[in-house]
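Summarise this fold before class:
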Amino acid sequence: MKIYHIINSLRLGGAERLVADLCAELSETESDEIHLLLLDDIDTSLKKEVEANKRIKLDVVSSKSLYDIRLPFLMNKALANADIIHLHLFPTIYWGVFYRLLFFFRKQKIILTEHSTENNRRTKWYLKKIEKFIYSRLDFIICISESTKKNLIKHLGVDFKVKMEVINNGINLNRFYNSKAYSRIKYNLSEKDFVLIQVASFRTAKDQPTLIRSLALLPSNVKAIFVGDGPELETCKELVKNKELESRVLFLGNQFNVAELVKMSDVVVVSSRYEGFGIVAVEGMACNKPVVASDVPGLSEVVEHYGVLFNKGKEEYLAELINKLHTNDTFYKQISDKCLIRSKDFSIKEIANQYRKIYSKL
């Protein structure tokens, strides 16, 4: 089969990381031809990684923007021979459905992976009918968590007919198991420092300010590393300045070798306001690090009973949990060991097999 995954770009993000790893794993099967089509030609380290894998056929649609109305027509040439078209993220889902309506005679199967429990479109009442129309034109929907499926059904209505199935996200476990920690000296950190790390784009949903505010409540040797970029970065830098935490916070921007940075750190923090799944939490677990995460749907499915959860936006509670990990070696080892065990549930090899079963049923 010729399987085409389509996504906006390969920026830093959980959905993008999943697509790259999934395409790499799916391409191991000679019977399937795996293509990855990007709608935005942004040069990133993740894109370079995909380009280096010659088993994946990478293509880019040349358009003015992600909202270029010509996109369905520009996609046409690349998708003409596709058997299955697999969509990820907005607005790719809309363009994929518009492509189907324009080229309906091709009888191709179109499926979607739903990556989030919430999005801005669901808050606009006037988009409700449009959303139901778009989603109803899909052949199958994969949700990355039970919470993602539950919220999507709530959004579309219980009478929605398209088949859905939950397949959790997965990661290349060996990439994290075998990675080596960077030297702390490079980042002006000492072995006495207790280092927190958060890997996320700087968007409101990721809520870096809660971690920054919690840092102000912790001892001075507790430091924080932020990996990522985005529209809220400058706001977070200003908050760090206002809290006089400049000497305790590192903003590293987008980084390719995240595993090495996580291995260098002591605790992974995921303080999101909402998450479809929380692939960063799994990456932290695979590095044998304790994960502290906000207790929100999707993310809690991954972390509960293994890492530790706190009420979203509550910096006092977050600081309390971090301090317990910092001062109680037994508790730290107990949580980190459980997290490592949990990571084994999310092997990209097993996840890819579940996707293959879906493809074979279409």
